[in-house]
Amino acid sequence: MIPISALKRTGLNTLLDLVIAALLPGRRTFPRIKSQISRRDSMAAEVIREQILMNTSEEIPYAAHSDRRQFEEGARLTRIAATIYCERDGQKGILVGKGGSMLKKIGTSARIQIERMMGTKVFSNCT
């Protein structure tokens, strides 16, 4: 048994070391192909949706989702353009906020999280 705490971040390195040590060596099941479509684009859409739920404190639009219009992954910069959809017209005001402040907050927090996950700068545009 390995005691861990996600809140205090204790025991996580020990757990990770033991899991890595238990992995069996072997070849890749699927080769990496340059032309292969990345799943990072759908991950980015989920991060945006997560930030919608995290940043809206009023009537939380659970049916809101984002759909990426553009996902260009470069060596130093990734460009993401996404459209946010909601279930009812009344929820648009919550998502946009006064003067677009909520939309900016959602986009900025999603961009920061995506940058951490991808290890590159991200230029995002949420509408």
**Number of contiguous helices:** 4
Helix content: 40-55%
Mean pLDDT: 79
Q: How many strands?
A: 3
Q: How much of the polypeptide forms β-strand, as a percent range? A: 15-25%
**What would you call the structural class?**
alpha+beta
Rg: 19 Å
Distance between the termini: 47 Å
Largest sheet: 3 strands, mixed
Shape: extended
Give the low-confidence spans.
none
Order of SSEs: HHEEHHE
User: Order of strands across the widest beta sheet?
Assistant: 1-2-3
Task: Please characterize this protein's 3D structure.
With 127 residues, the chain is of the alpha+beta class. Helix content is 42%, strand content 19%. The longest helix has 18 residues, at 101-118.
Quick summary:
The chain is α+β, with helices and mostly antiparallel strands and 127 residues long.
Q: Which helices and strands, and how do they pair?
A:
Elements: H1 12-22, H2 40-55, E1 65-73, E2 77-85, H3 89-96, H4 101-118, E3 121-126
Parallel strand pairs: 2-3
Antiparallel strand pairs: 1-2
Task: Name the features.
three-stranded mixed β-sheet; 19% strand; 4 helices; 127 residues; extended; alpha+beta
